[in-house]
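in:
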């Protein structure tokens, strides 16, 4: 979350007061992002809620705040299925060999 998104959220929330000193550093492939601080808040959806920590970066970014994998799993918003059964089969799948001639060596 950037500092402008934080200011807007802070005005809409009674739970969020001020930033705590940040302990983490964010690095991208192209640059390092300067952390301004962090805060913890409760995230809720229709079925679940969880406490989550947000890192606020200095400056402005052109994307919504990111939620981590553990937060999405706790909220029931993410399910990882290694078999891929959450989506319909398409033509780019790994094809099962029916005969030895169908196998790729």
């Amino acid at each position: 979350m950037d500092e402008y998104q934080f200011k807007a959220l802070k005005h809409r929330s009674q739970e969020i007061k001020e930033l705590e000193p940040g302990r983490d550093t964010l690095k991208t492939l192209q640059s390092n992002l300067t952390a301004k601080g962090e805060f913890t808040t409760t995230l809720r959806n229709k079925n679940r809620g969880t406490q989550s920590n947000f890192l606020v970066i200095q400056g402005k970014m052109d994307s919504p705040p990111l939620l981590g994998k553990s937060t999405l799993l706790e909220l029931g918003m993410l399910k990882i299925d290694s078999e891929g059964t959450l989506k319909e089969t398409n033509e780019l799948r790994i094809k099962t060999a029916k005969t030895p001639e169908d196998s790729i060596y």
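note: The first strand starts at residue 26 and ends at 27.
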